[in-house]
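Students often ask why inverse folding is considered easier than folding. One informal answer: many sequences map to the same fold, so there is more than one right answer. In these notes we will look at a single instance of the problem. The structure comes first.
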C-alpha cells in the first residue's frame, strides 16, 4: 500500500481532487472533516479555550475559534498540540482499515506545518495561483479580502511546499484540466 498525502493551501482545490479520487474508488481520508469531528467532541479543547469567546449557545464555534487562532500564533499552536495526536491516530486507523488497497490518499492541508510528512510514502501538492485562491475565499467563504489574506498567510507558502513534494497537480484552469492533471500524476505514481 502506498500512503499518499494530498496537500495544498486553503482554496487550492484539494476537495475537488479528493472528490475525483473518491469517484475513481480510491480510499480518501479528509483530515478537515476529521478535525471538525475532533473539535466537536473534544472536551479537552473546549476546556482549553473556555475563557475565550469561541462558543455559540454553549457549543464550540469553529468559525469563532478559527478567527481567534488565526490571529494569535500561540493559541494556534496550543490548538494544534491538542488536535494533532488524535489526528495522527485517525490517519493510522485509516491506513489499517485500507491496508489491502494499492493507493490510499489523505487530504491534509497542514502536512508540512504539522510535521506529518513522514507518515506518507508520497506527497502531492494541489497548486493554485494566489489571486485565484483569494477570489475563491471571498466568493465561497464570504471572507473579506483582509481575512482571506490572513488565512492564506497563516500557511507555509505554496512555493516552499512545491519544493518539498513529490508531485504537483496544477489547478488554475477548468475542472477538465484538473481531472487530466490528476490522472497524469496517478499514472506517474503507479
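Output (designed amino acids):
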Amino acid at each position: 500500500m502506498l500512503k499518499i498525502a494530498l496537500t495544498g493551501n486553503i482554496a487550492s482545490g484539494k476537495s475537488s481532487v479528493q472528490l475525483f479520487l473518491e469517484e475513481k474508488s480510491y480510499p480518501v481520508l479528509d483530515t478537515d472533516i476529521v478535525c471538525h469531528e475532533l473539535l466537536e467532541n473534544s472536551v479537552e479543547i473546549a476546556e482549553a479555550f473556555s475563557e475565550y469567546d469561541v462558543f455559540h449557545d454553549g457549543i464550540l464555534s469553529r468559525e469563532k475559534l478559527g478567527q481567534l487562532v488565526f490571529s494569535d500564533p500561540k493559541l494556534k499552536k496550543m490548538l494544534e498540540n491538542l488536535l494533532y495526536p488524535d489526528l495522527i491516530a485517525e490517519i493510522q486507523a485509516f491506513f489499517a482499515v485500507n491496508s489491502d488497497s494499492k493507493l490510499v490518499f489523505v487530504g491534509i492541508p497542514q502536512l508540512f506545518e504539522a510535521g506529518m510528512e513522514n507518515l506518507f510514502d508520497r506527497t502531492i501538492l494541489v497548486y493554485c495561483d494566489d489571486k485565484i485562491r483569494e477570489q475563491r475565499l471571498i466568493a465561497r467563504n464570504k471572507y473579506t479580502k483582509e481575512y482571506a489574506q490572513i488565512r492564506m498567510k497563516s500557511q507555509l507558502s505554496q512555493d516552499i511546499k512545491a519544493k518539498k513534494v513529490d508531485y504537483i497537480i496544477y489547478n488554475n484552469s477548468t475542472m477538465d484540466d484538473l481531472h487530466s492533471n490528476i490522472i497524469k500524476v496517478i499514472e506517474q505514481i503507479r
